[in-house]
Amino acid sequence: MQRPCNMLKDLVKPVIPRSAATRYSSASRAFCGMNLSSLSRLSLFVCAAILYLTFANAASAQGGAAAAAVTVIRAGTLIDGTSDAPRKNQLIFVRGDRIEKVTDGSVGIPSGIKVIDLSNATVLPGLIDSHTHIFLWGEDPHKGGYDANILNAGIALRAARATYAVRRALEQGFVALRDLETEGAGYGDIEIKQAIEEGTIPGPRIFGATRAISTTGGYNLEGYAPELVMPKGAQIVDGPVEARKAAREQLDHGADWIKVYMTHRSWVDKEGKLVSQPTLTVEELKAIVDETHGWGKKVACHAYNGIGLQRALDGGCDSIEHGLEMTDAQIAQMKSQGTWYCPTLSPYYDDWGDPNTPGGKRDRARAAVHEITFKKALAAHLKIVFGTDMGGIPWTEPIAQEFKRMVGLGMPPMDAIQSATSRAADMLEMKGEIGVVAPGAYAEVIAVAGDPLKNIDELEHVGFVMHNGSIFKNELTK
Ligand SMILES: [Zn+2]
Predict the structure, then answer these.
(1) Do residues 468 and 454 make contact, with C-beta atoms less than 8 angstroms apart?
(2) CA distances from 129 to 96, 176, 363, 385 (A)
């Protein structure tokens, strides 16, 4: 026979919050351990009393949540992430970690409510960078280039740098990152994400891709003596079976996205055209896409141009990363397949090699075709999302620098802002939850002193950051 306390405990289990349940179980365990036959009446009475107190506790806890303090943000100008135009003088009511409502500024605010006065500022949703590498610490050739990341830094140093990177992102108003592989740091992104979620370190929401996948001859480290077995920055596979297995392993260890390298080396041919070495076959990619879609997740494909980019589209990639050179037919295929385009313009405009060297010619060819492709993608209304490739760019630099590249190539500022807010949220299956200032969304709110629609560089100077309803940074009010 079940003891009465256990029966009652089973009945109430689903409705008590964890803290109340802990209090209940420790108290009731002590009592219910007594001899039931001699104490059955008394035990029923006391169990009922404990239950009453438990419900009272639970009810008051829930009542407490309902009465969680409301904070109101007064926005001089609000860019909400989805609307075509900004709105003046708006009030954003925040309760707990969510936005409760957004009203006109003329609505009265009940007395006793905390008001954050951003009436001289422009308020926006927290920003989203859809292409970062929190475990990458620059690729400056004078500091050992990419290889130094793996050869000279142990996992603790890399984790410390990743901790710095995520904090830097949040300080700059980036409240979510799609982090597209750890560059040899294994499943570190998922562990950094865990540290953020448990409150151990500050940082944005992380959508991690873990190790990434490429083929033999398709990723660094390379160029060493063939006798040496070098570590690789990505998981290397050959054949559809290995490809599917790698995707399974990565998904099993918590990958939110799968990242695949569809091109690797690139150079300029005799006619001066950019050529990229393809990596996975369509069959290998299809195995990965099929597996990943089965888990309800998506596949991001690094692809510069040519054969590899075509295979990425034919294999069913969900997003094209970089996409330096895309033909009209490829852009039309992306449009019809609903493929996202994450151009990452910034890294291709800095650190060009000497113009007379093969590397220098390649660098210039990349930027030249990238510009043409971006403008074509814009005209075709591809789903363009903001991505920087931070990590390749040192984390000490401003993340928002990508905005001026996009706007400089003809993207309207509001469109650029939406590429880093609501459109990115849509790609991340977080539509209405992040990337928007609207009722029901997480309270992810930032502000700048000036008008980013007039000067997009204002986004490099985010002065206020609210993350999950808590103020992380405020340099705009006293
Ligand atoms: Zn990248």
Answers:
(1) no
(2) 25, 7, 24, 8
Amino acid at 279: T
Query: Tokens at residue 224, please?
Result: 């060493």
List phi, psi (to 5°) of 72.
Answer: -115, 130
Q: Is the pLDDT of residue 54 over 50?
A: no
Long-range CB pairs of 38-42, under 8 A, 24+ apart, other chains included = 40/4
Measured in Å, residue 131 CA sits from the centre of ligand 1 at 6
The alpha carbon of 134 and the centre of ligand 1 are apart by a number of angstroms equal to: 10
- CA dist 463 and 475 (Å) reads 5
Length of the chain in terms of residues written: 478
- Span from the CA of 133 to the centroid of ligand 1 (angstroms): 6
Dist CA 1 CA 4 (whole Å): 9
pLDDT of residue 211: 98
Q: 391 alpha carbon to ligand 1 midpoint, in Å?
A: 8
Residue 50: the pLDDT is: 46
Quick one: how far is CA 136 from the chain centroid?
A: 16
Query: How close are the terminal C-alpha atoms of the chain, in Å?
Result: 64
Q: What's the token pair of residue 155?
A: 């996992």
Residues 177-224 have pLDDT tens digits of 999 999 999 999 999 999 999 999 999 999 999 999 999 999 999 999
CA trace torsion 234, 239, 244, 248 (10° rounding): -40
